[in-house]
Amino acid sequence: MQFKILDWNKLSPARKKSLSKKPTLTFIAGPREISKVRAKQLIEKYGTEENYLLFGVLKDNYIPELEFPQFRSMKGDVVLRAVEKLGEIGMGKLRILNHRHEDTAYIISELKPKKVIFINGSYKRAIHLRQEYWKALDAGAEVIMESVFINDSEAKRYFQKIEKRKSKKEFDKYKVYTDKEILKLAEETSANSFDWIYPIGAVLGENGKPKILAHNAVLPYETYSALKGSIREKNKSPAGDQNHYDTNHAEMEILERAREKRIGLRGKTLYINVFPCSTCCRILSRTELSRVVYSLEHSSNYGIKLLKESGVKVEKIV
Fold it and tell me: Residue 304 sits in which domain range?
């Protein structure tokens, strides 16, 4: 297979124009971390003899705003090793394009590819709510979402690998924390989430003492949406949609762990980085929690009113 390595910031206007004139140009936008085998699959699928394939490689170490181990960006050597396995048989032209994540939308608008491939979880928030997606549609491109993994087994192995990479967030059981410090702990706990749409962290505390930490957990297992696709993206859910979720919410994880540990909720405070959704608020209103403390608003104030009318104090701290 013929291939060259290009750098978007070093390409001349003439070279960019030349690329934009390729009638079969397919652009794989620089993705999060994928395996050599998965990269090989994508090249075989889209680098056919009649296609001109531009495979993006991010200069960023992580997906912006998702600077967690599970959202590292793919390195260029992964594509190179995949190409080595392919040889020359039946393949078209391949160009590896090094670019910044923030330049993706501009690249699409400039090159106007026939196909734009987005890899699941390579963007903070749902892809259809981002300018990269709309620039692709404006360019008349066919937009395709692809899996991070080759199969279920690889997805589960990746989760196990990431769990070893992570530094487990712990708390000092002898320290008395302020509300703001516990909220920070909730925010740090959200870094364990595999949900790129809304990473959420929560802490159950009492009198300044954290008891349980939890994050929103993708179901049926953490890497499932990266494998199969986000239900929000599949349904093109609008911002604030409360009907399509890939996760068990962090506050529900807290309640389940409290039940398992036989820790009562009476008089305790739920700390969470983003205010609970309406469904979770309805459940929380039936508990014996004394307070809910949060730092970021959700899409509706319905839950705040419901909790207050149920005798649960609600406090925002930023």
Answer: 154-316
Q: How many domains does the chain have?
A: 2
Amino acid sitting at position 26: T
Note if the bond before 220 is cis, omega within 30 degrees. yes
Radius of gyration over every alpha carbon of the chain, rounded to an integer in angstroms:
22
Closest CA to 78 of 37, 118, 27: 37
Span 142-200, pLDDT tens digits: 999 999 999 999 999 999 999 887 766 678 989 999 999 999 999 999 999 999 999 99
Yes or no: say if 30 and 69 are a contact pair by the CB < 8 Å rule: no
Q: pTM to 2 decimals?
A: 0.93
Neighbours of 181 (CB within 10 A): 15
The burial of 38, by beta-carbon neighbours within 10 Å (0-12 exposed, 13-18 middle, 19 or more buried), is given as buried
Contacts of 301 (CB under 8 A, 6+ apart): none
Query: What residue spans of 168-228 are helical by DSSP H?
Result: 179-189, 224-228
Residue with tokens 């009198």: 207
Of 117, 148, 179, the one marking the end of a domain is 148
Question: Under 8 Å CB-to-CB from 113, ≥6 apart: which residues?
Answer: 25, 26, 27, 54, 136, 139, 141
Q: Is 159 found in the same domain as 292?
A: yes
3-state secondary structure of 191: helix
